[in-house]
């Protein structure tokens, strides 16, 4: 999803090589990364991943794609030689933080993941930092908020309902809300996320950065939906509490204080109404 939008944003500005398992290029297969790197791109955006729900259900696949894929990519860059030293922008996640999290997470909180997905992202951040320190590349890991409203069919991310309860009612379809309305979380739109990735490529920061976003409760999401699409849309949200999902979501970050990224010029939305507006502008 983000890769497609990033490619659309960069098309015409840069020469692009797109790699995805959907086209038969599996980054966790030996040799694939070397092929990618052989064209010596100035910038490599690494977004390929198995998302949170799937990484939790399939331990082997999660580590193979999310961790081994990164390691193979970094070693392909290292082995290219001749002083090749690309900018690498890695899509990390706020899932590197696990419970107990403070009410607002500052820039200096160390990762302590509580899911396999978050663990894989945190390991990739460490690898990226070490390969940068060793001079093989200039890497930046951008810790993306939950991207909302996610277009297209629901995926296997555990956070999917945050998007489903907006996207489905806007299309006149029912959506299930598995948690209570007072759940608070950290969001940015796909458009903002693409902006983060492009800005990260252009900056010279090396390391991991918490990205800006919007802290909103599910109730605030629903009120924004009501303002945009009325009571009829809100009536399509079916409350079906799911203890397992509620337990997972309970340990998720609720708010960040991303001073460093803001100082560096990274920008996200400032209201959930704006996030819905971006979705309507970009998808409909
Ligand atoms: N969407 C979010 O809310 C969010 C939040 C934080 C971080 N991220 C991260 O941002 C990145 C992009 O997220 P997205 O929402 O676009 O996810 P997505 O699932 O839409 O895209 C991931 C892409 O990776 C590809 N892929 C999977 N395994 C691969 C492999 N072995 N080799 C090559 N390609 C492979 C998939 O085919 C898919 O096109 C991911 O790394 C994700 O972990 C996303």
How would you describe what is shown here?
The protein has 284 residues and is α/β, with parallel strands linked by helices. The chain is 45% helix and 14% strand. The protein is built from eleven helices and nine strands. It has helices at 2-10, 32-38, 52-57, 59-80, 116-133, 161-170, 190-202, 218-234, 243-250, 259-263, 272-283; strands spanning 43-46, 87-93, 138-144, 146-147, 175-177, 184-188, 207-210, 214-217, 237-239. Strands 1-2-3-7 form a four-stranded parallel beta sheet, sandwiched between helices. A three-stranded mixed beta sheet has the order 4-6-8. A two-stranded parallel ribbon has the order 5-9. α6 (161-170) packs parallel to α8 and α8 crosses α11. The radius of gyration is 19 Å and the shape is globular. The structure holds nicotinamide-adenine-dinucleotide. Nicotinamide-adenine-dinucleotide (NAD) is lined by residues 1-3, 20-22, 25-28, 47-51, 65, 69, 91, 93, 144, 146-147, 155.
Outline of this structure?
This protein is 45% helix and 14% strand.
């Amino acid at each position: 999803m983000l890769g497609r939008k990033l490619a659309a944003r960069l098309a015409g500005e840069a020469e692009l090589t797109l790699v995805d398992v959907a086209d038969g290029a599996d980054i966790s297969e030996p040799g694939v990364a070397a092929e990618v790197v052989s064209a010596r791109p100035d910038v490599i955006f690494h977004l390929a991943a198995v998302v949170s729900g799937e990484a939790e259900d399939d331990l082997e696949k999660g580590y193979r794609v999310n961790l081994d894929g990164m390691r193979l990519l970094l070693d392909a860059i290292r082995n290219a030689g001749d002083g090749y030293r690309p900018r690498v922008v890695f899509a990390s996640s706020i899932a590197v933080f696990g419970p107990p999290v403070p009410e607002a997470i500052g820039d200096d909180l160390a990762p302590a993941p509580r899911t396999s997905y978050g663990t894989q992202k945190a390991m990739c951040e460490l690898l990226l930092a070490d390969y940068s320190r060793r001079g093989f590349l200039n890497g930046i890991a951008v810790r993306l908020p939950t991207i909302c409203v996610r277009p297209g069919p629901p995926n296997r991310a555990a956070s999917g309902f945050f998007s489903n309860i907006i996207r489905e009612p806007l299309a006149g379809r029912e959506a299930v809300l598995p948690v209570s309305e007072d759940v608070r979380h950290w969001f940015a739109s796909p458009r903002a996320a693409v902006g983060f990735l492009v800005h990260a490529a252009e900056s010279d920061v090396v390391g991991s950065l918490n990205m800006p976003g919007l802290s909103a409760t599910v109730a605030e999401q629903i009120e924004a939906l009501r303002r945009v699409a009325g009571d009829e849309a809100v009536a399509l949200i079916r409350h079906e509490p799911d203890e397992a999902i509620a337990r997972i979501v309970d340990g998720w970050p609720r708010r960040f204080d991303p001073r460093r990224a803001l100082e560096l010029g990274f920008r996200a939305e400032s209201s959930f109404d704006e996030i819905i507006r971006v979705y309507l502008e970009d998808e409909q």
